[in-house]
Amino acid sequence: MNLQSHQSFSLWIVIIVIGLLSCDQNEDHKPNTKLIPYPTNLSQADKYSDIEQIKFDSDDVKSLDFSPQYFKEAIDATEGTKKETNVRISVDNKLSQGAYVLEIKNKNFDISYGDRGGFFNALSSVKQLLFLNDGKLPLVKIEDSPKYSYRGMHLDVSRHMFTLEEVKKYIDYLSFYKYNYFHWHLTDDQGWRIEIKKYPKIQEIAAFRNETLVGHYNDEPHQYDNTPYGGFYTQEEIKELVAYANQRGIEVIPEIDIPGHCAALIAAYPELSCHKNQIETATKWGIFEDVLCPTEETFEFLENVFNEVIALFPSNYIHIGGDECPKVQWEESDFCQQLMKEKNLNDELQLQSYFIQRIEKYLQSKNKNIIGWDEILEGGISNTATIMSWRGDEGGLEAASHGNNVIMTPTSYCYFDYYQSEDPDEPLAIGGQLSVEKVYNWNILPKGIKKNEEKYILGAQGNLWSEYIKTFKDLEYMSLARMITLSEILWGKNEKDSTLFWDRLSEHSTRWIDKEVNIAYHLLELKTDFEAVPNQGVFINCSTLLKGTNLKLTTPENKQVQLKTDQAFQLKEKGKYLINSIKDNLVGKTKQFDFYPHKGNLASIELINKPKEKYSGNGPTSLINGIIGSNERYGGAEWFGYEGEDFKAILSFQNPTYIDSISFKFFKGEGQWIYLPSEINVYKIDKNDKQQLIANSNKITTTEKIGHVVIKIEESKIDRILIEVKNFGEIPKGNQGAGYNSWLFMDEIIIE
Known about the structure:
By secondary structure, this protein is an alpha/beta fold.
C-alpha cells in the first residue's frame, strides 16, 4: 500500500456488521486483539468463537435505559427469546466507574459492568474485535477500566458547519474509541449554530456571515470568497443528535461562548454591547473587541437563551466559554466603570468574574454546573466551576489548588487543528505542530501538581477548531489519528513499550484506509534530528515510529546511501537531500531538506533565555545546524518561540574565527500575536567575560511572513559572541491580542 496518496477518501460509516458471521475461519490465522485503548487485562485463546449471530434478551437492553434499536444499529444483532439468548448482560456493583468484564466463549459471551458507561465500553471492545477480525469474534476475556472519568472530544461548528449526519458520524468515532463526552462549540464571532426561538434574529442574522476569509489569516492582504455562509441546527435536530449520542454512551456538553467571542450575537442584537453600534457577523478569524455589556438587559437575554439550551441538553454541564475577552470596551464604558464602583470591583478582570458568576448562579438554580476556559480564573471564581486548562498547565494547577475540577486541554497536546507533520503538502492549518508521537508522550497531570490535588484532574479533551477545516473529509484527516492516540492516554497507557502502540495504530489506520476513511497516516514519516556538534559539523539521525523501517538517503551529488534508523550521518555537501522510508509494502512519503553549511555549524551554543517548551525546535543547535525552517509555518523543529521574552544566547568557537556577517530569520504573523523583534544586538565577549557591542540593528520591517536581517561585523576575529534579540513587547491597542505579550519566532542564525 502506498500511503502517499491517502489524503482524500470518502467516508465509511462506522457501523460494524456482525450478523450471519459466515466468513471462512482460518484456524492458522491468529485472532487480532490490537484494541485501542488497550485493556487493563486481556487473555485470549488462539481461535475464534463459533457464534454466527448475536442474540440478546431485550429486557436486558431496556434495563440500560437506551433504545434496543441502537443495539441493532451498532452491531446489527437479531433480538432473540430468552431461550435463544447468547449474550448475558449483568451488573456488578463491585466494578468501578466505566469498568467492565467481557468474556467471549465458544457459543456465547458475557458482559458485566459497573455502570452504564462500563456497558458501552464493553460494546466498543466488541465492535473493535469485529473490526479487526473481519466480522469474527475471537475467544477472549477482558477485564478493563479507564483511568480518567472525563474522556472528551470537541468540535467547533461556528467557523465551519457540519451536517447533522456528519456530526453523528463524529459521535460514532468517539464511541468506537471509548470517549464519553462531546463538547459542542455552537457559538462564536463567525456564527451562532443553535436555534433560540425567543430571539429569531439569531437565526436571521447571527447564524450567517456575508463572506469568509480565503487562505491563512497571516496572508496579506486578506482575501475573501464573496459568498454568504451560514446555517444553524434546529432544536429538533439538536434533540435528535443528543439522543443519538446518548444511545452510544456519549454525553453532549453545549458551549455558549460569553462574554467575548460574541460578534455574531451583537450583530443581531447590538443593544447587548456597550457601544450599541450595528456591526456584522465576523468574516475572518481572531479576537474581536465587541463583547457583551454586563447590563441587566444582557443578563435577562442570556437567561432566556440558557433556558432554551437547558431544555435541549440533559448534561449536568453547560460550557460558558469565558476565553479571550478583550476589556477595551469595558474600560471605555461609563456604565461599566460605574458598575465596578457599585460592586466594589477593582478592575475589569473582576468585572469579568462578576459576569461569569452571575451566569453560574443562574445555571446552578437550574441544576447545571458550568465549565469555562481557564481565563475565568482571572478575578476569582466559585469552587464549583470546572476549568478547561488550554493555555498550558498553569490554569490546571491554579484551579486544582483551589479545589476546582479540571479538564486538561493544553494547546501543545490537544489542539488537533495544528499541523500534524512538517510535510509541506499537509493541508492548511492554523499553525503550530502536534504529531501523534507528541500526543502519545503527553502526561495529562500538569507538572508540579501536588499529590493531594491530582484527584481534581478529571481527564482531558482533544479540541478541533474549524477555521481551516471546511469539510468532513478535512475533519477526519485532522482529528482521527490523534483522537485515537489520545484515547490510549486517557485510558491509562498500559503498555510501557510505545512500539506496541504504533503497531496497533498502524493496524487501525490501514483498516480505516481500506474503508476509504480519510485518516492521516504519519507513522512512516521520517523524523530527522539535525545536530551541530562543536568543531565537527552537522549530523543527521533518522527514524520512524514503526520499527524495522529501511531508509535510503540521496545526496545533492545524487549519491545514494542506505541508512539504518538511529544511525548518524554527517552532512557535508551544500544543497538538497532526499530520504525515503520503506517498511514491508508500505512506502512513506519522500522527505527533502536543504543544507546550508556555515561557520556557525562548528560553534557551541548556550541559551541564556529558554524558549517556550512547545516551540523549542530540536534543541539549541537547531539555530545553527544549517537547516532552514519552513517559510509558511512557525511550529516545526527548526523554529524557536519566545512569549514576551528576549532571545539571548552565547556562541563559542574552539578557535578564533573570522566573521563577516550574521544573518537572522524571523516569522511575522501579527494576527497570531507574532511580531518582528524591536532590536538586535551582537556583543563580543573577551577572556575576562567583558562584553563589547560590535553590531546593532533596530530597523526591522517586512510586509511578508518572513523577515530577514543581515548584520555586518566589523570586529571580525571572534572567540565568543552574545546575541540579543529583543521581543517587540506588549501588543498595541487596535491589534489582535492587544495588551498581551507578543511572540518572537526565530529560525537559523547564519554566520559567514
